[in-house]
Amino acid sequence: MESITTPAGITLAFDRYVGGDAGTVILVGGAFSYRKFPKMVELAQKLADEYHLTVINYDRRGRGDSSDSPGVYDVENEIDDIAALVEATGGSAALFGWSSGAGLALLAAASGRAPGITKVIAFEPPFVVNHENFVPSANLDVTLHKLIAEDRRGEVVKFYMTHAMGMPRPFVAVMRFTPFWKNLKATAPAAAHDWAVMSDYMRGEPLRAADWSGITVPTLVISGGKSGDLLRTAARAITAVLPNAQHVKLAKLSHNPNIALLTPPAGEFLTGTDQYVA
Predict the structure, then answer these.
(1) What is the SS3 string spanning the chain?
(2) Which Gene3D superfamilies does the annotation name (predicted)?
């Protein structure tokens, strides 16, 4: 494990996978994700081993071995975290974001505050752009923050999954009896950071091109044919408003992806090979 301390005093822990000299990519996880999540580790290892990339797999604030800003949930702070990480790990890096981490990666690139960002991969950012599917309540942060402040972690997981992510209640109830429930509870307080990232873009309203015009770097949006309509619609919608983007849909992929299917388009795009040349 390595770590940096940001100008704001946040400790960010990360693992560095050195595969070669093909460039650097930072993995940005989504809700309840952390750097030791098995699929994040597998993705990091495959990008390093098979595409000779240096991969930075970090704990976003409030997760794993990174510190937090309890009660302060602002997407601008996480953008600053990414900017600090890019600067500290070489000054130039691509971003690979998964789910709400994809939303954060896109917002970081749009902000202009991390000029070292070279490319962005957005894997299924959960934008809600119409009312045809689930639309979260705009003020769910009131209950979310209260549950976090009371350290009711199991309730945080259930509330966020059902009210912010739209997962069926019976499915979430079954998850309580799985081995990874304890890991979900461990990262539960960080869910407020995910809501801070995504809340403005989950209101059932079309995405506005003006909000994303700052993303001039090449961008690849990836979606899965086995994912729900909401995520597939979101992928098409964000691709349409980005200045320099392409979209690939992988028929056999879901939001809980097979990393062997996800890695090739990501690696090829990042290294500028095959049909994903940026």
Answers:
(1) CEEEECCCCCEEEEEEEECCCCCEEEEECCCCCCCCCHHHHHHHHHHHHHHCCEEEEECCCCCCCCCCCCCCCCHHHHHHHHHHHHHHCCCCEEEEEECHHHHHHHHHHHHCCCCCEEEEEEECCCCCCCCCCCCCCCCCHHHHHHHHHCCCHHHHHHHHHHHHCCCCHHHHHHHCCCCCHHHHHHCHHHHHHHHHHHHHHCCCCCCCHHHHCCCCCCEEEEEECCCCHHHHHHHHHHHHHCCCEEEEEECCCCCCCCHHHHHHHHHHHHHCCHHHCC
(2) alpha/beta hydrolase
Domain parsing of the chain, residue ranges: 2-126+207-271, 139-198
So what's the pLDDT on residue 245? 97
Average pLDDT, the chain: 95
pLDDT for 209 equals 97
Chain centroid to CA 197: 10
Residue with tokens 């086995």: 226
pLDDT at 274: 64
Report the distance separating Cα 27 and Cα 32, nearest Å.
Answer: 14
What angle (nearest 5°) sits at the alpha carbon of residue 95, between those of residues 158 and 52? 120
Q: Whose structure tokens read 């890096």? A: 93
CB 198 within 8 A of CB 28: no
Structure tokens at 176: 């309580």
Tens-place pLDDT, residues 202-249? 999 999 999 999 999 999 999 999 999 999 999 999 999 999 999 999
pLDDT at 116: 96
**pLDDT confidence of 278, banded at 50, 70, 90?**
very low
- Non-local (6+) Cβ contacts of 172 within 8 A are 157, 158, 161, 162
